[in-house]
Amino acid sequence: MRETSYVRSEMLAEQAPPITNVGPIGWIKENLFSGWLNSILTIVMLVLIVIAVSAAFPWFFNGIWNASSLSECREILKGDTGACWAVIHERFSQLMYGFYPNHLYWRPNLAFVLLFVAVAPVLFNGLPRKMLWFSALYPFIAVWLLWGGPVWGVVVALLGFVIGFFAFRFLEPVLGSLFALILGVLATLIWWLFLAGPVANGLAGIVPLALEPVESRKFGGLMLSMTLGVTGIVGSLPLGIVLALGRQSDLVIVKSLSVGFIEFIRGVPLITLLIVASTLLNVFLPPGTDFDIILRVMIMVTLFAAAYMAEVIRGGLAALPKGQYEAADALGLDYWKAQRLIIMPQALKISIPGIVSTFIGLFKDTTLVSIISLFDMLGFAKAIQANAEWQGIVWELYVFIAFVFWIFCFSMSRYSMYLERKLQTGH
Amino acid sequence: MKKSVFFGALTVASLAAGAVAAGTMDDVKARGKLNCGVSTGLVGFAAPDANGTWNGFDVGVCRAVAAAVLGDPTAIEFVPTTGKTRFTALASGEVDMLARNTTWTFTRDVDLKFEFVGVNYYDGQGFMAPKSLGVTSAKDLDGATVCIQTGTTTELNLADFFRSNNMSYEPVPIETNAEAQQQYLSGACDVLTTDASGLAATRASFENPKDHVILPEIISKEPLGPLVRHGDNQWGDLVRWTLNALISAEELGITSANIDELAKGTNNPEINRILGTEGDLGAMLGLDKQWAYRAIKAGGNYGELFEKNIGENTPIGLARGLNAQWKDGGLIYSPPFR
Fold it and tell me: Which residues of B fall within a CB distance of 8 Å from A370?
């Protein structure tokens, strides 16, 4: 008997979806022309983009790279549109290193490369943990490389931390952590203030291992921004955490000090603080005081960023459910352990976007030092415009500076996105 | 950075509190460097070149003083100052002298307690307008928008000029000269006003300088000169007479080319006194006999500095005008070296 079936016995082969719904066409249809309003907007934007690109493109690529002055650029261009990139070419090292002596460029370069080595284990935890020792040493290495001078100054400064640490370790079982901490800090300060100088001089007398010293006034360009930015970023995070915890503390004095500091710093524009650091301090300090200008600015920038950081982290702390604090208490953890193991990892994770925004803001704020006549890249832009050869040049310099800043800020923001994805624990 | 900085800048501060300020000249000699306040960048007057060396007309004064005191025209720490920070920098001792095209006014001299040691450039405030605007005189500017640098005497002069002529104007305040150029070229204002020297330099940098006119009126007196703090007359004298030495050198025909020849002795007693082959003027300043020789040798006499930095053969192309020697009908005049 012949089998007759009225239903299909085998599946129909899958067919490709209609050409208008997949691939580039489908994407375009869905994303660009999904309705008459979106279609009009798409067309308008396309026209605008074409106009902008066709205006900027010749200017970018018709640019002159080799000329010694703006008028020479104009002669070469003979009325065509074109950028005079020659100014970047001629002044590149100045925009990067400022007045730093030419033959010592390797030092900031090396410091820059080592910065990545030092930062890598902090940023990516797949790397060997032993590299963190190098990260801890890096600030001292960088200071020595950038400013030069005898190596012993940096070594004894580092010894201060070691002394403080051991004082704390040995005193803690005897006196309890608070007194041990206070005495440890005191020991460090006493070492720095009274003993470090003579010891460093003595050691320098025995083993004169030194780099050619470079004064702070010679710092400039991107290097200055990097120095200030990295110090500010490295310094403001721990300081901000301490301030945020201080603000939440039950101890009246700690709390009011933290609140007072945060609100004072946030209530004052950075420019004011910079001007205080650069000029007003000079009036108050006795004449002849050599209080390094860049150090002053570093302190101000760090304090400023720390106040904002504290508020960002406080936001993270406030977002944690109360149950987390209570769970920590229930486990019998003391305050610092609870903070270190339970509260901070979560609070910091929540605050990552805010923290990175503060970092980016801080890095860009370093350009404000041109107000107090330190020559960062923007300061140099003005100084370069004041040369008879380059007077009247504007766009090229600012486009270049914007591009350099964009690279740094964009990488920071990409890293923060990577970190957020990595630490994602929700489902 | 000195290592001491790390160990506690604050201690340094408190320890140094006991130290009493010596004379500026002793400070400079002890330091081995002159801290000279200059502009953050003004065409022809002060700007760093591609090697980071500062050049310009004002810088020339710094170099002459450094050469006179320290014997080395490069022993200078240039401290760039803005229109806002310059006076605090000088008052606080951050700089030893200011050579930063600063207008000598009553209040700056008396109230701010500075001592202007002379005038190295007689300037005056002028106006520049596009030719297409069709104005020929500043008196036609009623109702114009004016680009103006803030924090300078220019701002006040402008208000005075328009008020005394019963005209109205709309100011467009801007911070720097470079910004002023851009704003003016983009049409943000009808007229640009600043010192006439600055206008000439700005116009020279335009793509089509002929499309712009500098109006004939000069509405203010702007005697620009180096200044020092009140109260240290020895230092003030030194800077004053270094400037005078440069001016006298031009008057007497001492140039950087023939100075070595003249320093062997001449028939002109004043040249001899300046160059130290006769008398001992240097000792009265607390310096050696050769101080003025070194100052002039550093960058040439006043006229040479002018020609090299802002004169007619430079892109800025300023004529001597008021800044010619008194013998040539200008105002540049040095008291005698006697």
Answer: 40
| Number of domains composing chain B | 2
Q: Closest approach of chain A CAs to the CA of B10, in angstroms?
A: 8
Q: How is residue B267 annotated by DSSP?
A: S
Cα B114–Cα B300–Cα B56 angle in degrees, nearest 5: 60
**Closest CA–CA distance from residue B309 to any residue of chain A (Å):** 9
A89/A343 Cα distance (integer angstroms):
51
**What per-residue confidence (pLDDT) applies to A184?**
82
Q: Closest Cα to residue A117, out of A128, A107, A106?
A: A128
Q: Are residues B227 and B80 in the same domain?
A: yes
Interatomic CA distance for residues B103 and B109, integer angstroms: 10
Residues A264 and A198 in one domain: no
The reply to whether residue A292 touches residue B2, judged by beta carbons under 8 angstroms, is yes
A window 111-150, beta carbon within 8 A of B = 143, 147, 149-150
Category of A151 on φ-ψ map: left (φ > 0), alpha (ψ -120 to 50) or beta: alpha
Listed residue (B96, B53, B78) closest to B234, CA to CA: B96
Distance from C-alpha of A390 to C-alpha of A354, rounded to nearest angstrom: 40
Residue A14 has pLDDT above 50, yes or no: yes
Nearest CA-CA distance, residue A380 and chain B, Å: 9
> What average pLDDT does range A289-293 have in this prediction?
75
Q: What is the DSSP-derived secondary structure letter of residue A269?
A: -
Q: What is the domain-level CATH number for residue B163?
A: 3.40.190.10
Domain that holds residue B320: 23-122+223-328
- My answer on whether A289 and A393 are in the same domain is yes
Angle formed by the axes of helices A395-422 and A344-365, to 10°? 180
CA–CA dist B334, B326 (Å, integer): 9
Same structural domain for residues B265 and B186? no
User: What ipTM, to 2 d.p.?
Assistant: 0.81
Summary count for chain B: helices (H), strands (E): 14, 13
Q: Based on the domain organization, do B115 and B246 belong to the same domain?
A: yes
Q: What DSSP assignment string belongs to B82-150? A: -TTTHHHHHHTTS-SEEEEEEE--HHHHHTTTEEE---SEEE-EEEEEEGGG---SGGG-TTEEEEEET
Residue A387 contacts B where some CB pair is shorter than 8 Å: yes
Measured CA to CA, the distance from residue A61 to residue A83 in angstroms comes to 8
Give the pLDDT confidence of A359-413 residue by residue, as tens digits.
Answer: 999 999 999 988 887 889 998 998 898 888 888 888 899 999 999 999 999 999 9
Q: Are residues A204 and A228 in the same domain?
A: no
